[in-house]
Amino acid sequence: MNCELSKDFIAQMRNLIGEDELHQLLDALEGPSPTTIRINPAKADRDFLGCAEAPAVPWCAEGVYLADRPSFTLDPLFHAGAYYVQEASSMFIAHLLREYVGDTDITALDLCAAPGGKSTLLQSCLSAGSTLIANEIMPKRAWILRENISKWGGDNVIVTNNRPEDFRRMREAFDLILCDVPCSGEGMFRKDEGAIRDWSLQNVEMCAERQRDIVETIWPCLRPGGLMIYSTCTYNTLEDEENVRWISQELGADILPCRAKSEWNVVGNLLDDTFDCCHFFPHRIQGEGFFCAILRKHGEPTNRKTSSLPLKGAGGSLRLLPDPLFSSLPHGGDLEGALVPVDHPTALRYLHGEALVLPPDVPKGQVIITYRGLPLGLVKNIGNRANNLYPKEWRIRKQVESL
Questions:
Q1: What band does 316 get if pLDDT is binned at 50, 70 and 90?
Q2: Each residue of 2-47: pLDDT tens digit?
Q3: Global pTM value
Q4: Of 196-210, 233-247, 248-262, 296-310, which range is least confident?
Q5: Are 362 and 380 in contact (CB under 8 A)?
Q6: 61, 71, 221, 277: least surrounded by Cβ within 10 Å?
């Protein structure tokens, strides 16, 4: 960490966690960040990825700590959606979903979803009968979200590019809303020096106000009895505990138990003991800074089925992002007889956007390139070569000589 931390930030943390822990936190911020991945259970397991002996993230069964950081760009399994590179602390949401949702079919909204870590986590944790809308307000980030959702796989996710107020006509449509709200980013100081430079007490106050605006806008879309997971990647209580209390008191919600096992070293409420929440500090756990709480909206749950999600009722206000990779599959998406396995060098050339030469027995037309049994994308085989149909915006940008 080359940037100097603000004296106001240091004073804030001294008041919150005390002098001894402050020095431990500052020492941790000078150290390296752990590298963690979350395995896609629909596509892979530890043995398949060669990390059977790697330590597990305690609160997420699919989370794995890696000894070093490999070149994920040069791993076709990463592009195939076999795993997602995700910060360990944020995987705690899997623990909350196991406790409060389980196998129940629900309709869920990930409101601030890009780049897709929590959306892919939700997709893996929710039942097959559930529906997830993954939304991102920033257009460029929404396209990245779409890419990661598409690669992860599954047909129960809709990616949208909208403001929170665009969902107003979808009143009481969601059983679960994840609000991983934009924040001052204190928990990412070790990984993002820009967050250090941008931090100020004024920015903290501005973020807290914006977070309340976001939650208040989307709150009518949560069903009575529905759940909201509120999370940030920051430490201060203005954006965390005080906002959770505000949601409970002003909007009408019960703050539910949000507890971790003692051996996980997660910290609870920094203000008082009136409600549960969880803080993750990098000097206590292997991960970055993170905060979360879970609330239940007042009112009796209704019996609306997931299938009644009123997407059409939203008129033209929802901008849905199509899937560019599999929307043009032959035979309505039927992959039987259209799979062509390739080795590692050929997979990288495909991901780089090159034309391929396929074995002579491969049928002409659109076929699916696979690596170790997982689909990477389409080519159009014309006999003497196969034209690459992998989306241009997804392609590896390194020169082929370096692959």
A1: very low
A2: 679 999 999 999 999 999 999 999 999 999 999 999 999 999 999 9
A3: 0.92
A4: 296-310
A5: no
A6: 71
In 10 A of CB 4, how many CB atoms? 9
Tokens 């893996």 correspond to what residue?
Answer: 124
**Number of domains comprising the chain:** 2
Strand-pairing partners, residue 63, are 38
* Same domain, yes or no: 72 and 218: yes
The residue among 78, 87, 62 whose CA lies nearest residue 151 is: 78
User: Tokens 């966690």 identify what position?
Assistant: 17
Kindly report the number of other CB atoms within 10 A of residue 390's CB atom: 21
In a domain, 40, yes or no: yes
Please state, as a whole number, how many other Cβ atoms lie within 10 Å of the Cβ of residue 352: 16
Of the three residues 314, 349, 381, the one that is the final residue of a domain is 314
Full residue range of the structural domain in which residue 206 is found? 35-314
Q: Are residues 230 and 133 in the same domain?
A: yes
Q: Which two tokens stand for residue 315?
A: 């008129």
DSSP-assigned beta bridge partners for residue 349: none
Cα dihedral 42→43→48→53 (10° resolution)? -40
Residue 291 shares a structural domain with residue 354: no
Average pLDDT over residues 65-80: 96
**Residue 186's pLDDT band (cuts 50, 70, 90):** very high
Task: Residue 180: give its domain's CATH number.
Answer: 3.40.50.150
Residue 244 half-sphere exposure toward CB, CA atoms < 13 A:
30
Residue 16 in domain: no
Residues annotated as catalytic (active site), given as ranges: 233
